[in-house]
Amino acid sequence: MERKDKIFLIIFLLIVVILILIITLNLDFFYNFMDNNIEIYGYPAVFVFSFLSDIIDQPIGPEVPASVGAVFGLDPLYTFLLAVAGSSLISLINFYIGKRYLSEKLERVCKTKSYINYCRLFYKYGPVALLLAALTPVPYVFTIWLSGSFKMKLRNFFVFGLLARALRIGFILLTARTIFLGF
Description:
Layout: H1 3-25, H2 27-41, H3 43-53, H4 63-71, H5 76-109, H6 112-135, H7 140-149, H8 154-181
Helix pairs in contact: 1-5, 2-3, 3-4, 3-5, 4-5, 4-8, 5-7, 5-8, 6-7, 6-8
């Protein structure tokens, strides 16, 4: 267990927590900023905000920009595809970050026997955890980092993470469109 690996993980988690707090405490500002930009710039703004919303765990998910775009009258299919593309792109990047950077740090910080047990546990329940995180308000990005760091198969990541997240975005987009526009 190396001290600099522990320090790296602690600093990484502190930065994430600070960013989450900043966004949560200024939620109205971020909602208004997103609404104004989606109304002005349309489809590119839906993609950008869907991408940004999944960089770290925070209260605004990629379904929010998609729903806002649908309410402003953007084509629901294009809005859905751009929101899914933005969310999927950053999810793949987060998976790579977990696999490339956090995996070796976790392995060195955890005791070898403990790490092997965590790997077995995640291998057994990881896809279910990722599915729940993709479909519910459970921290999705954190689960992606764990999926990468515990070396989940990319096929499982696509099915239980990206496909499930696309279903959530589509369901919420259609629900918002139905509620606000009546069809």
